[in-house]
Design brief:
Helices cover 16% and strands 49% of the residues. The protein is built from three helices and 27 strands.
Length: 428
């Protein structure tokens, strides 16, 4: 073979080698495939929920890649929904089809609820035409709760706590995350409120709360005897850890109300009326014997067939402090009274210190006496004019008999003097 023929042969061989060559069963052409994971949504993925993973296929070569197929190789903790195929047909990717014009394919995967937090492997492979599968290096999907969500699910406490009273306050926490939390510390900050824990500290610990589960702590609290009746906001400090040992801090607030239902006593203070047919003022006393103040008190007296109201029937009394009292007067005139008592029906409206509203209907008893009973009890005095008249009559009668007696006496003396003078004149 001459040199010319040898050169032609070498050129042919080089052309054939540059066009196509075979290594095992794989045929390599002038295409250059690149497969990458674009993103995952959400990121990080959450255990027990779904994640969408997107892959991009690019061809950096000078030749089209045709009949491309990709297959996802799911492994724990990821899985495809039943009926969804792991194999996807891509078709052809043209030469230099990269970057923004690359082909995007995505898979929707279910993340097992017991998945470990952190990076979890997932694999993908592809093949071109009838060539063998090319298995890629593992991709990683980050599994971790987006945020550890712990909420105050319920506060089990009385609607009002009396000053000096001991009660239980239960705090229920809800773990909204998709994985468990552990070593949960619940601390009540009692520095600025009139409460104290009884037979325990202000900290309670829950060892673990599983995903979508609840845990509860109970505190024995006493309201200070001098505590003012109102709503108090008690700060709660939460500290807990996730399964990877990450520490979380959270602040919450619980409202506790100090107060009690007002203890209102209503009595008849005094009256100017003691007998039937009388007219005058009746004074009614309102005593707040409770530990909470009374506000916005309004009283209305309802007229009945036994009496008529002369004064206004409605009175605004206002506020009555704890351990204090107020009085109000109504002027009435008795009509036909059947017995020895008259009911004074009162309708009372008021609020406590926490603006809880109360309504009460009560009957105050007005005792009625006969005229003689009233005089005997010193409740009623006799008629002054009649007494004076009687005295005048007695004096006049006495004076009359005295004058009569005096006249008779004087007439007797004159008669005796006349008889004595007659002999004298005779003797002379």
């Amino acid at each position: 073979m001459n040199k010319r023929g040898l050169m032609i042969g070498l050129i042919v061989v080089c052309f054939l080698i540059s066009s196509v060559f075979v290594i095992g069963a794989n045929t390599v052409s002038f295409y250059s495939m690149n497969v990458s994971m674009v993103n995952q949504e959400p990121s990080p993925a959450e255990a027990g929920r779904y994640v969408t993973v997107r892959f991009k296929l690019e061809n950096a070569g000078r030749e089209n890649a045709e009949d491309i197929i990709i297959e996802l190789l799911p492994r724990y903790p990821f899985s495809l929904d039943p009926g969804e195929s792991a194999v996807k047909s891509i078709g052809s990717i043209y030469s230099r089809q990269t970057g923004a014009v690359g082909v995007i394919k995505d898979y929707r995967l279910k993340v097992d609820e017991n998945a470990l937090e952190g990076n979890n492997e997932i694999k993908l492979r592809y093949k071109i035409r009838d060539n063998e599968w090319v298995e890629l290096e593992p991709f990683y999907i980050n599994v971790r709760p987006h945020d550890i969500l712990v909420s105050l699910e319920k506060i089990d406490a009385p609607s009002m706590i009396k000053p000096g009273e001991t009660t239980q306050v239960g705090i229920s926490l809800k773990n909204l995350a998709s994985s468990f939390i552990k070593d949960i510390t619940v601390e009540l900050d009692l520095s600025g409120v009139p409460f104290a824990t009884i037979n325990s500290t202000n900290k309670k610990i829950i060892k673990q709360i599983d995903a979508e589960s609840s845990g509860e702590v109970v505190f024995n609290l006493m309201a200070e005897p001098s505590a003012e009746s109102k709503l108090y906001k008690v700060p709660i400090k939460l500290e807990f850890f996730d399964r990877l040992g990450t520490r979380y801090l959270k602040n919450e607030t619980v409202g506790l109300t100090v107060g009690a239902e007002p203890d209102l006593s209503i009595t008849l203070e005094s009256s100017q009326i003691y007998s039937k047919g009388g007219m005058g003022d009746v004074s009614i006393k309102f005593v707040n014997k409770g530990v909470t103040d009374i506000k916005f008190m309004n009283i209305m007296l309802e007229e009945t067939s036994e009496f008529k109201i002369i004064s206004p029937s409605e009175v605004y009394l206002g506020n009555i402090d704890s351990d204090d009292y107020e009085t109000t007067d109504f002027k009435i005139s008795l009509k036909k009274v059947k017995g020895d008592e008259v009911n004074l029906p009162l309708s009372i409206n008021y609020k406590d210190a926490n603006n809880n509203e109360y309504e009460r209907d009560v009957n105050v008893k007005l005792k009625i006496y006969s005229s003689s009973e009233a005089k005997a009890l010193g409740l009623k005095k006799g008629n002054g004019a009649t007494g004076i008249f009687i005295v005048i009559v007695i004096v006049a009668v006495g004076f009359f008999f005295y004058r009569r007696w005096k006249k008779k006496k004087d007439g007797k003396k004159e008669s005796e003097g006349f008889k004595l003078k007659i002999p004298f004149f005779k003797k002379k």
